[in-house]
Amino acid sequence: MAEIAAFDSKEFTRSKPSYEPVSGQGLRRKYEVTFHTPLGIGALIKDKNAFRDQFLKETKNLVQQFNVKTKRPLYSSNALKVELGLPGAIAFTDKLIHAVEDHIEMVHATYAVLPPKDVPTVTVGGLRCPKEDIPTHKFMRVLNPMFSYISAWSYFGKDRPDSTIQVDSFSSKWTPAWQDLLNRTSPLSTLMATNVTPTYVVQIYSHS
């Protein structure tokens, strides 16, 4: 049975408070982003059926333990935050991960660090597109919607065992990274397309 490598991504941001004077009101606090990176996580699952059964069983137990009002088999992080608040969502997720960790063979993390002070701009464009320099902070934000497949591409930067690859939804222009991932895999099915052209596509791949 082929293993499953599943990939998703989120923004990872750190901020610090700063204060600015407001006429007649004193100081107003605002938050300034001091660090930002897209963060991709891949999990290699040995037995998808055993993982699924344990995941659903433990989720059901945790729903009762945390007295979650809205009953469903799966919860997104945002849904848990709405139901339980951030501390409760973290505790729920931590218990769930520990319950299924024996079925996870490895975790692959991908991130990008480009300090604007050292790298003020990034050159983008290329194949049949004009090149231009854009601010680094803007480039890092542009990476966010496509980072789930970049995480999968990063995972295959070295030889890996045969596996079925599941990539969460993303939107992206056609990139060398995407083409390289296509060259290493064979498309099985399209899950969702966010554009009528093949420029934006989400698929499951089988690596062989």
What do you see in this structure?
The chain is α+β, with helices and mostly antiparallel strands and 208 residues long. The chain has helices at residues 48-65, 77-100, 136-143, 147-155, 176-184, and strands at residues 3-22, 26-45, 104-111, 121-126, 129-135, 163-167, 185-192, 202-207. The chain is flat.
Brief overview, please?
This protein is an alpha+beta fold. It has one domain (3-207). 33% of the residues lie in helices and 38% in strands.
Distance between the termini: 13 Å
Order of helices and strands: EEHHEEEHHEHEE
Give helix % range.
25-40%
Estimate what percentage of residues fall within beta strands.
35-45%
Please tell me the overall pLDDT: 82
How many alpha or pi helices?
Answer: 5
Oligomer: single chain
Poorly predicted regions: 192-208
Rounded radius of gyration (Å): 20 Å
Which structural category fits the helices and strands? alpha+beta
What's the shape? flat
Q: Could you describe the largest sheet, including whether it forms a barrel?
A: 6 strands, mixed
Number of structural domains: 1
Q: Number of DSSP strands?
A: 8
